[in-house]
């Protein structure tokens, strides 16, 4: 199989390298060929799959950020929480 601008990608290739090749060639699909048998097509990487992978990455990052933010907020709430024992403050008042 011959593609415009040279060979295709490989199954063990990083997504960012394959995306760079798609963009450089201005093609909609990158054929994925076997390293052992470069003439054997094993699949293709299209723009829709690239977008799905990027969306999944952004969703995972968003979940991690939200989980991290919730943990930080809980620590802040815990540090500033009012305990059951009264604490004296200036001026003689007591916080309960």
Explain what this protein looks like in three dimensions.
The protein is built from two helices and four strands; from the N terminus they run αββαββ. It starts with 14 loop residues before the first helix and ends with a strand. The protein has a two-stranded antiparallel ribbon. A two-stranded antiparallel ribbon has the order 3-4. A hairpin with a 7-residue loop joins β1 and β2. It has a single domain, classed as CBS domain Like, CATH 3.90.1280.20. The N terminus is likely disordered. The longest helix is centred in the middle third of the chain and has 33 residues. By secondary structure, the chain is of the alpha+beta class.
Keyword list:
single chain, alpha+beta, CBS domain Like, 2 helices
Quick description:
The protein has 96 residues and is of the alpha+beta class. The protein contains two helices and four strands; from the N terminus they run H-E-E-H-E-E. The strands form two sheets. Strands 1-2 form a two-stranded antiparallel sheet. It has a two-stranded antiparallel sheet with strand order 3-4.
């Amino acid at each position: 199989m011959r593609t415009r601008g040279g060979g295709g990608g490989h199954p063990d290739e990083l997504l960012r390298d394959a995306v760079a090749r798609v963009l450089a060639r201005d093609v909609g699909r990158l054929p994925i060929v076997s390293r052992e048998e470069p003439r054997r097509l094993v699949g293709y990487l299209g723009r829709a799959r690239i977008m799905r992978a990027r969306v999944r990455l952004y969703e995972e990052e968003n979940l991690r950020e939200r989980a991290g933010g919730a943990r930080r907020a809980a620590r802040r709430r815990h540090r500033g929480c009012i305990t059951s024992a009264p604490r004296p403050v200036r001026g003689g008042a007591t916080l309960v």
